[in-house]
Design a protein that fits this description.
The protein is mainly α and about 220 residues long. Helices cover about 75% and strands about 0% of the residues. It contains seven helices and no strands. Helix 3 packs antiparallel against helix 7 and helix 5 runs antiparallel to helix 6.
């Protein structure tokens, strides 16, 4: 392969993943409009303070960072298994994020609302995940509780290369997934919208399986 070809190959691969993400997001948007329309025709839409609305807003934020980290490691990892995982995370969560965005559109709700994670605090159901109405979590506290990476950790991932980058990504993404699972479990307990419950179950099952896969990769790569 010529030098010019070797330099343009990563660029072509990067554009391919970007185009796939756009396509997946558009498809999920269309599916979300159809499924949400069906749900609304059977009853009233969730309100702005509902568990469904809070979940859709918070999980979009959560997914956005996962997509960012997955695309970063996909761009530079040389490990084939990790590359496939990163691709799956980026495309899968892009689709879910697009669908959740559309839920809020179809429900006539804004994309922002209550303090993050407050929807998870339902005293009548015995929850106390997201602070209280009188003392809600700050955005920084909520992001930490959701397992999200800090700005310094994102910069470290961007600067890292080779095995260091692979291992840092796995560490951050495992923690990120571990933060998503309680959110999905809370909606499964508190929510009523059929499609939202289906997506929450998919997130719980899918991210649990991905944690197992990432822990196996950590062992194979010799991550500390």
């Amino acid at each position: 392969m010529s030098d010019d070809a070797s330099r343009t190959a990563p660029v072509r691969r990067w554009w391919m993943i970007a185009l796939v993400l756009l396509a997946v997001g558009a498809l999920a948007f269309a599916i979300g409009r159809f499924s949400t329309f069906g749900a609304q025709s059977r009853g009233s839409a969730p309100t702005t303070t509902s568990p469904e609305a809070g979940f859709a807003r918070d999980m979009q934020v959560h997914h956005s960072q996962a997509i960012e980290m997955a695309m970063e490691i996909y761009r530079k990892t040389e490990d084939p298994e990790l590359s496939v995982l990163a691709y799956d995370i980026a495309t899968g969560q892009s689709g879910q994020r697009g669908e959740m965005y559309d839920w809020l559109v179809q429900w006539g709700l804004s994309q922002s609302g209550e303090p993050m994670m407050q929807w998870m605090n339902a005293s009548e159901a015995g929850h106390d995940h997201g602070g209280t109405a009188e003392d809600p979590l700050t955005d920084e506290e909520a992001r930490e509780a959701m397992g999200m990476a800090s700005a310094d950790e994102i910069r470290a991932l961007e600067d890292a290369t080779g095995q260091e980058a692979d291992c840092l990504f796995l560490e951050l993404m495992i923690r990120h997934h571990e933060g998503a699972i309680p959110m999905a479990e809370a909606l499964l307990e508190l929510g009523t919208d059929p499609r939202a419950l289906q997506v929450a179950q998919m997130i719980k099952d899918g991210q649990t399986a991905e944690i197992d896969a990432m822990e196996s990769m950590q062992a194979r790569l010799g991550c500390g």
